[in-house]
Amino acid sequence: MIQIIAITKENKQVCLSSIDQLKTVDYAWYWIDFNQPTTEETDQLDKKLKFHPLAIEDCIHSFQRPKLDYYDDYTFFITHSISREDLSKKEHDFFIGDQYIVTYHNQDSHEINQVWNRFNQTQHTNTWDQYRIFYEILDKIVDNYFPSIYEIEDELNDIENNTNDESTEVLLDKLFDIRHELLKLRHTINPIRDLFYRILNSSHLKGIQERKEYFADIYDHLLKLSEMVASNREITNDIRDNYLSINAHQTNEVMKVLTIITSIFAPLTFIVGIYGMNFANMPELNWQYGYFFILLSMGFIALMMYIWFKRKGWF
C-alpha cells in the first residue's frame, strides 16, 4: 500500500492516491509511505521516483545494517525497530530530499503509523517538514526500546531474589534466555547508535543540523540504552556466577558428608571383612564374648573418628 500526503505552498495538506499526481501541482514538500508494498508498488521507486538501484536493492533485501548513504539529490537511511513480543528487528528505510521524504517498510510499522496519524490530524503544518517527520519516527523507534529493557530488568530482579522459589536449573535457563535477548538488543541498538553519531557529525545534512539538539537527544537515549544493555549483561554474569558458586558449594557439602561417612565405615568394613573370611584357625570366632567385643570396638572406632572430624571442622 502506498500513502501520500502533500503540503501545498499555502501549508495545506492534500492526500493523493497516485505518485503521478505529484507532478500536476508544485507542492512545497510531500511524504510517501510504502507500507508493505507489492512488487508493482516497489517498482515505482525506480520507474517514478528514480532512486538509485543499490538503495532500492537495500529496501527489497531486508535486515541490512543501519546506515546512511549520500546520493546526488537525496540521502538514504536504514534503521531498525524491535518487536515487543520476540525482540525481532523490523527495518525502516528513508529517502530524504529537499522536497520530500519517502518511507519504506516491508512490515507494518507502529511507529510510522503513529506519526502518520498525528501529522494527518495536525492543523499547523507550517512547523512540519521532511526532517521533522524523520525525527518523530526515529524518536518513536528509540523510545520503544525502553519498555523491553525495563521488562528484562524486572525479570532479572525476580531471578536474583528467586521470588517463585524455583530450582537453580530453572533459574539458569531463564538467565541464559535473558542473555540471548540482551544480545539481540545489543545487535540492534549499537549499530543505530553508531548511525546517529555519523548523522550528528555530518556536514551534508543541513536539515538535521538545524535541529541538531533534537537528534542529539535521541543519540543520548541510545547511549543510555547501550549502557543499560551492557550493565544488564554484567548483572547476568554476576547472577550466573553466584548461582554456579552456590551450586558448587552445595555439591561440595554433599560430597564432604558422603566422604566422611565413607571414611567412618571404611575401617568398620575392614574389620567385618577380616572376620567374615571364616578360616578355621581364628581364635576370636570361638571366644564367648568375641561378637560383643568386636561390636564395641567398631562403635568406639566410629565415635573416635566422628570426634576427630568434628575437631577438624569438617562438620
Automatic annotation (TrEMBL):
In terms of superkingdom, the source organism counts as Bacteria
- InterPro entries the record matches: CorA_cytoplasmic_dom (IPR045861), CorA_TM1_TM2 (IPR045863), Mg/Co-transport_prot_CorA (IPR004488), MgTranspt_CorA/ZnTranspt_ZntB (IPR002523)
Alphabetically sorted, this entry's keywords are: Cell membrane, Ion transport, Magnesium, Membrane, Transmembrane, Transmembrane helix, Transport
Q: Which species is this record about?
A: Aquibacillus albus
Membrane topology term reads:
Multi-pass membrane protein
NCBIfam families in UniProt: corA
Can you name this protein?
Magnesium transport protein CorA
| Cellular location(s) | Cell membrane; Membrane
Q: Fetch the SUPFAM superfamilies from UniProt.
A: CorA soluble domain-like, Magnesium transport protein CorA, transmembrane region
Query: What does this protein do, in the record's words?
Result: Mediates influx of magnesium ions.
Q: Which residues cross the membrane?
A: 257-277, 289-309
Q: According to its UniProt record, which protein family does this protein belong to?
A: Belongs to the CorA metal ion transporter (MIT) (TC 1.A.35) family.
